[in-house]
UniProtKB/TrEMBL annotation:
InterPro entries according to UniProt: GH (IPR017853), Glyco_hydro_3_C_sf (IPR036881), Glyco_hydro_3_N (IPR001764), Glyco_hydro_3_N_sf (IPR036962), NagZ_Beta-hexosaminidase (IPR050226)
Species annotation: Natrinema altunense (strain JCM 12890 / CGMCC 1.3731 / AJ2)
Pfam families: Glyco_hydro_3
Residues in Glycoside hydrolase family 3 N-terminal domain copies: 12-333
Lineage of source species: Archaea, Methanobacteriati, Methanobacteriota, Stenosarchaea group, Halobacteria
Family, per entry: Belongs to the glycosyl hydrolase 3 family.
Biological process terms in GO annotation: carbohydrate metabolic process; peptidoglycan turnover
SUPFAM superfamilies: (Trans)glycosidases (SSF51445), Beta-D-glucan exohydrolase, C-terminal domain (SSF52279)
Highest taxon in the source lineage: Archaea
Protein name as annotated: Glycoside hydrolase
Keywords of the record: Glycosidase, Hydrolase
Length: 525
């Protein structure tokens, strides 16, 4: 097996092609250099910790590409989770709205345009794999990790929009990676913290969880990411995470669904793996199960141990080198397909893509923002009178997310829309200011399902019969704890595009045409 420059690959180089490692900081670290030079590691993944500016990312990617090429003879996959909404490693003003906002629009053309736009940005900076779209069907209101990252609760909607998003990415030369197979949407726990279990039978899994992945595979998606979730109906044992299950990865994904693309693991340091089978052993078992690329994203010692564990497994005869060769062949095939025509990273080229991303983002937000209810004809609000914004800073619901919500984000955007905004950041209803009759008040709803105090704030404000609007800035399931609220708008995220769209809806300059793509318990007109 030869590298791109004609070198023969030894075992270490082949194993290095199967690892994707993360690192701290905005330039290559000594630990990363060691992984590349001593263990031939061939791929990297970016998180927010690696991202500052377009120019910095372009320079970083160019340096890493040079390092990896020099040591291995093969260009690297450079990956990022640029899903949009609350999961966007490149957190600039071009970030697209969340997938659930797209789901609320139900517009396949917008999904395709979104994929094209985000891929153009990523490709300009040398990022050639987007760990998106999310193909999980979110039908569990208590899901702590998927939520607005999903298009919604309908398998057809998720499959159609996810496929269009993926095909848009691939049309601009970026590998799309659908996740999290065979489905993380109906869990009430987060695999970052523990091993979730989905108890559904095979018939139900076929109808719901598998359906979007089947649709994307039939359309030609390049890569699928596994999930660290147990599915007793299809895994080898009730305690086996799907990532390390041959029954799931080899027999189901490869043989039954006919997928011949890249199988990428979710992060192997997540507790659902690290605290069950262990990260190094999990990497060996993932390759045995049929995976191609192993994400070990955080700890240099663990990264080195995992690479060594795979080499040891081959040398001891436990892991057939033919399995390694088959995985490497797939990796090289997709590197030739997607990387051969790529141009050097350039902040200038990125700038040329930015306007298109903003345009598409605005279109998605305008179509997706949803007026869930307006019983008292509260909208539109007027810019001729003050507007009071009651908010509370919201924490991330999962380590997968990037940002915490700050009410000042909304206040700034509403101010730009022409409102005279006074922002009140409070913790509970006892801190509520006294508003006169007829005062215009909006309140942000974020994390209310897990925060009884904030649900009480919303109910108290609504009971005062002011000109009140509840704005759900993230998860629409929060409406289930304030089911009688008179006026509610759902934005599905707090990107710049959705905040701008909200201002237009509140002023009456635009009509909210989106529809909730999930069913909110206890909430109905």
């Amino acid at each position: 097996m030869l590298t791109a420059d004609g070198r023969e690959m030894d075992l270490a180089t082949k194993v290095g092609q199967l690892f994707v490692v993360g690192f701290d900081g905005t330039e290559p670290t000594d630990d990363l250099r060691t992984l590349i030079t001593d263990r031939q590691c061939g791929n990297v993944v970016y998180f927010s910790r690696n991202i500052e500016t377009p120019a910095q990312v372009a320079t970083l990617t160019d340096r890493l590409r040079g390092l990896v090429l020099e040591e291995t003879g093969v260009p690297p996959f450079v990956m990022a989770d640029q899903e949009g909404g609350v999961v966007a490693r490149l957190g600039w003003g071009t970030t697209l709205p969340s997938q659930m906002c797209l789901g609320a629009s139900a517009d396949p053309d917008l999904a395709r345009a979104g994929g094209e736009a985000v891929a153009a940005e990523l490709a300009a900076l040398g990022i050639n794999v987007n760990l998106a779209p999310v193909l999980d069907v979110n039908n569990n209101p208590r899901n702590p990790v998927i939520g607005v990252r999903s298009f919604g609760e309908g398998p057809d909607l998720v499959g159609d929009l996810g496929t269009e998003l993926a095909m848009g990415m691939q049309s601009n030369g970026v590998v799309a990676c659908g996740k999290h197979f065979p489905g993380h949407g109906d869990t009430s726990t987060d695999s970052h913290h523990e091993l979730p279990v989905v108890e559904h039978d095979r018939e139900r899994l076929e109808a719901v969880e598998f359906a979007p992945f089947r649709r994307a595979i039939d359309a030609g998606i390049d890569a699928i990411m596994t999930t660290h979730v147990s599915f007793p109906a299809i895994t080898d044992s009730p305690s086996t995470p799907a990532t390390v299950s041959p029954a799931v990865q080899r027999r189901l994904l490869r043989d039954e669904l006919g997928f011949d693309g890249l199988v990428v693991t979710d992060g192997m340091e997540m507790r659902a793996i690290a605290e069950t089978v262990g990260t190094p052993e999990g990497c060996v078992r993932a390759l045995e199960a049929g995976c191609d690329l192993l994400l070990v994203c955080h700890t240099p010692e663990t990264q080195a141990d995992a690479i060594d564990a795979v080499i040891d497994a081959v040398e001891s005869g436990r892991l057939d080198e033919a399995t390694i060769d088959a995985a490497v062949e797939r990796v090289l095939r997709f590197k030739r397909r997607r990387l051969s025509a790529s141009s050097p990273p350039s902040a200038g080229r990125w700038a040329e893509t930015a306007d298109r991303s903003r345009e598409v983002g605005r279109a998605i937000a305008a179509r997706g923002i949803t007026l869930v209810r307006d019983r008292n004809d509260t909208l539109p609000l007027t810019t001729e009178r003050p507007l009071h914004l009651v908010g509370s800073s919201g924490g991330r619901t999962s380590p997968a997310e990037d940002d915490d919500f700050e009410p000042t984000l909304l206040a700034d955007s509403l101010g730009a829309a022409g409102f005279d905004v006074t922002c009140h950041e409070i913790a509970d209803r006892l801190e509520l200011p006294s508003f006169d009759a007829g005062t215009q008040v909006i309140a942000t709803v974020d994390g209310a399902m897990a925060n009884d105090s904030w649900a009480a704030v919303i109910r108290t404000l609504d009971d005062r019969r002011r000109r009140f609007v509840a704005v759900v800035v993230r998860n629409p399931y929060d409406l289930s704890v304030v089911p009688d609220v008179s006026t509610a708008v759902s934005t599905y995220d707090y990107t710049r595009a959705t905040r701008t769209a909200l201002g237009a809806v509140l002023r009456g300059e635009a009509t909210a045409t989106g529809r909730l793509p999930v069913t909110v318990p206890e909430f109905a007109d």
